[in-house]
Design goal:
Layout: H1 2-64, H2 80-90, H3 94-106, H4 108-125, H5 133-154, H6 177-196, H7 201-225, H8 230-254
InterPro entries: PAP2/HPO, PAP2/HPO_sf
Pfam families: PAP2
Keywords: Membrane, Transmembrane, Transmembrane helix
């Protein structure tokens, strides 16, 4: 009898210790994730700030350094020596231009996907809070991208090196919109799929590889098409990385595990 009472007591004590241990482990894991999240937010926020400064400095350089009238209709272009040298190498290549143009339409597929994803969450949950926070962050990224696009359409830094066959006048080309579209939209899609398909490793992997390949092809084809100056492409990359780093910092604030 005494043995049975002693055995029950020991099991009870062991059970209580296990519960306390599990609570400690969960609490520690939560705090660890929170600390990692804060570190990631600071790191990505710092990177966003650095790339923003680099983007602004590069824009100022393009506006003021080695400016010469080498564009169509004697339009002025910054960093004219290196821009002219590279454009003379590529010329206007309509094959690469068409490839970058039509591949660019595929970039909007992730936008439609995430838009539908968020809409279904909203309809199902019947309230704004039912939509995942990462989808709201993505919407913010799209808005920022649109504002930057409008800004550089109004504030002309460079015009295209060529007047394209389907155009009748000079068109703004700094920074390269196709470059930014590919990197920002596909880059953010890669990040989002890492969250949404966290446990579906193969699906996540295939989507991220396809998006990365498409991103590289669009940027390379745009560069070789001759529809932009070299500085336009480089600026597009800088501004795109700035936006993506800010996006990662924002996600790190709200999502512990990405």
């Amino acid at each position: 009898m005494f043995y049975l009472i002693s055995l029950c007591y020991n099991r009870l004590v062991t059970g209580i210790k296990n519960i306390e241990r599990d609570k400690y482990v969960e609490s520690y894991a939560y705090l660890s994730n929170e600390e990692n999240s804060m570190r990631n937010e600071k790191s990505y926020g710092l990177l966003a700030g650095v790339f923003l400064i680099l983007s602004i400095i590069f824009t100022i350089i393009v506006c003021n350094v080695d400016v010469a009238a080498i564009g169509p209709e004697e339009s002025s272009v910054g960093l004219s020596t290196i821009n002219k040298y590279f454009h003379d190498l590529t010329g206007l290549n309509m094959i690469f231009y068409s490839l970058s143009k039509y591949l660019g339409y595929l970039v909007f597929l992730p936008v439609l996907y995430f838009g539908l994803f968020g809409f279904l969450q909203l309809v199902t949950g019947k309230k704004l809070s039912a939509v995942d926070i990462n989808i709201w962050c993505l919407l913010g990224l799209y808005i920022v991208f649109a504002l930057i696009y409008v800004f550089f359409e109004k504030v002309i830094i460079n015009y295209r090196p060529e007047i394209l066959p389907d155009e009748t006048a000079l068109e703004a080309s700094f920074p390269s919109t196709h470059t930014m579209l590919a990197i920002v939209i596909l880059g953010s899609a890669i990040i989002e799929w890492g969250i949404i398909f966290k446990r579906r490793i193969k699906t996540k992997k295939y989507l991220q590889i396809l998006a990365s390949l498409l991103m590289v092809l669009i940027v390379v084809f745009r560069l070789l098409s001759g529809a932009h100056w070299l500085s336009d492409i480089f600026a597009g990359i800088l501004y795109s990385v700035t936006i993506l780093m800010a996006f990662k910092a924002l996600l790190s604030r709200y999502i512990f595990e990405q």
